[in-house]
Structures are given as C-alpha cells and as structure tokens.
C-alpha cells in the first residue's frame, strides 16, 4: 500500500555537460543552489540568504528535470523527486503525511534537493479546481514545510511547471518559490548543442551535418531532438539488418557492428 511506500532518495548522474544550451539557467542554478551548499559561510558573511524554493517554468520537454538532476549531481546533493499528479492520485487521504515525510527525509539526507515535477497539479490556486479540498490541504502542508526550512539547513525545493499562471500565488511569496527561472525552448545554437549531446556516443557518417539539422528543427524541444536522434539510430539499424545475412547479425560480429553508422539519410 502507498502508505508504506519509501521515499526514494536518488543520487542522479546527470552532469551540466549532458544539457545542451541553457547556459544562463545553469549559471543561475549554480549560484542559487550549489553556492549555498558549498559556501554557507560566505553567504552568512555577506548577509544574504539563499532561496528555499526555485520554480523552473517553460514548455514541456525543455530540460527542467535534467536541470534539477544536474544541479543535484554537481553540488553532490541527494535528490528526492515527486510528481504532482502522483501525489494526488495515489496518496489521497495521506497526501499531507506524504509531504511531511518527504521533507523529513530531505532534512535527514541534507544536502538534499526536493524536486516537484508538475507542481501545478497539487498547487493550483485554492478554490480554482473541483475537489479543491484535497489540493487546499496539500498546498497548506507544502507552505508549512517550506516556511519551516531553516536557513542553511541544506534543503532546497525545486519545482517545475508548464503552467506558472495557474499556481497558487501564496507559493510565490518571499521565502517560498521566490526564484522564478524560465527554461525556454532552444534556439538554433542551443539545438546544435543538444544534437551534439545526444550524438556524442553515436557513430556518425561524414555526411551528417549537425549545424544543418539544428537549422532545420525550428520549434523542436530537447525532448523532440532526443527522439529524432534515437529514431535515426533505429533507421540505421533497420537498414543494416536488411542488408546482412541473418547469421552475421545474430552473432553481432564485427562486420555487423562496423556497419552500424548513422547517415544523413537516417535523419530524414
Ligand atoms: P516536462 O515538462 O515534460 O517534464 P522537462 O522540461 O522536465 O519536460 P526533461 O524531462 O528534462 O524535460 O527532458 C526530457 C528529455 O529530453 C531528456 O531526458 C533529454 O533526453 C531531452 N532534453 C530536453 N532538454 C534537453 C537539453 N537542453 N539538452 C539535452 N537533452 C535535453
């Protein structure tokens, strides 16, 4: 039963280098999360307090989850991830308890990052939604927990949403999610970086031109590009499977593996 479900603490292994583009966002996260974890005394001396909550907002598939994981990896913090809709659907009646438990675990595991994906599901403006009483109680619990985070306790909450406009404004007040960071869809340069990340370990034929692909994929998100690259690799595999005798393929011998090269045509 869900009541007994463990709060899962992860140690992610996403690095800054695994994220294409978004250089300013990365820098902002470094300063807001990594620096306070690493240099608490410096913050004290300067008389400034680090944020407790950061809201990443922007279209789906642009790397919000990746960013939260990378900042955890790079600041050697533990990572506890929850998804808004999951809290609502699975933990009805015990959702507040669940939230309390998550924050308790995070304090124990500090430095720790709590990542709440799709926070709009648990925190739409109070009274705005059907079945509001569940979400009202959840928001209140979340606010209580955030207000209770002590300075320099090594716990930071990062939330993500595609719909910042429907969030309960109480969440955005000072001391809560008071740092709003836009994670935009990638421009051409960022798309090129994302193509580079996703083809890093892929044998590419000489005719593959990533610059051109970046140019041609206006409107694609990082998730779209990842899917495109994966599909190209599968096209290459299909092509090779058709041309080689079954025996060679089944042994996965050198000739077979050597032919697995992704060409320009595979991207079409
Ligand atoms: P959602 O709002 O749908 O949860 P998201 O913004 O959290 O999306 P991610 O889950 O971080 O997006 O991205 C989905 C996948 O898309 C990633 O696992 C990655 O493969 C790819 N991706 C997205 N953005 C980038 C990026 N900037 N660089 C490299 N890969 C990316």
Task: Set out the fold topology.
Elements: E1 9-10, H1 23-38, H2 40-46, E2 53-57, H3 64-74, E3 78-83, H4 84-90, H5 95-108, E4 112-117, H6 132-148, E5 155-161, E6 177-182, H7 188-199, H8 210-216, H9 222-243, H10 246-250, H11 254-259
Helix pairs in contact: 1-2, 1-3, 5-6, 7-8, 7-9
The structure holds adenosine-5'-triphosphate.
Protein name: Cell division control protein
Domain AAA+ ATPase: 50-187
Organism: Pyrococcus yayanosii (strain CH1 / JCM 16557)
3D structure, described in words:
- This protein has 268 residues and is an alpha/beta fold.
- It has 11 helices and 6 strands.
- The protein has helices at 23-38, 40-46, 64-74, 84-90, 95-108, 132-148, 188-199, 210-216, 222-243, 246-250, 254-259; strands at residues 9-10, 53-57, 78-83, 112-117, 155-161, 177-182.
- It has a 6-stranded mixed β-sheet with strand order 1-3-4-5-2-6, with helices on both faces.
- Strand 4, helix 6 and strand 5 form a beta-alpha-beta unit.
- The mean pLDDT is 90.
- Bound molecules: adenosine-5'-triphosphate (ATP).
- Residues 19-22, 60-66, 117, 160, 162, 194, 197, 222-223, 226 line the site of adenosine-5'-triphosphate.
């Amino acid at each position: 039963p869900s009541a007994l479900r463990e709060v899962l603490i992860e140690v992610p292994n996403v690095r800054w280098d695994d994220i294409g583009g978004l250089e300013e966002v990365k820098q902002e996260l470094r300063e807001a999360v990594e620096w306070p974890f690493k240099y608490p005394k410096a913050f004290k001396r300067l008389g400034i307090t680090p944020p407790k909550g950061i809201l990443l907002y922007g279209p789906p598939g642009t790397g919000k989850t990746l960013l939260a994981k990378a900042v955890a990896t790079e600041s050697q913090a533990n990572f506890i991830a929850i998804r808004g809709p999951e809290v609502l659907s699975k933990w009805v009646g015990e959702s507040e308890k669940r939230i309390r438990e998550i924050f308790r675990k995070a304090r124990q595991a500090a430095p720790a990052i709590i990542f709440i994906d799709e926070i709009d599901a648990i925190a739409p403006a109070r009274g705005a939604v059907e079945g509001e009483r569940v979400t009202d109680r959840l928001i209140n619990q979340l606010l209580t927990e955030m207000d209770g985070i002590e300075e320099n306790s090594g716990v930071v909450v990062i939330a993500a949403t595609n719909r910042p406009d429907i969030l309960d404004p109480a969440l955005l007040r000072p001391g809560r999610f008071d740092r709003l960071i836009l994670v935009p869809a990638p421009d051409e340069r960022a798309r090129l970086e994302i193509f580079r990340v996703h083809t890093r370990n892929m044998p590419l034929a000489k005719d593959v031109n990533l610059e051109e692909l970046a140019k041609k994929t206006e409107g694609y998100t990082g998730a779209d590009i990842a899917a495109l690259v994966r599909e190209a690799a599968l096209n290459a595999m299909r092509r090779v499977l058709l041309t080689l005798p079954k025996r060679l393929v089944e042994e996965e011998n050198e000739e077979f593996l050597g032919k697995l090269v992704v060409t320009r045509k595979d991207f079409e």
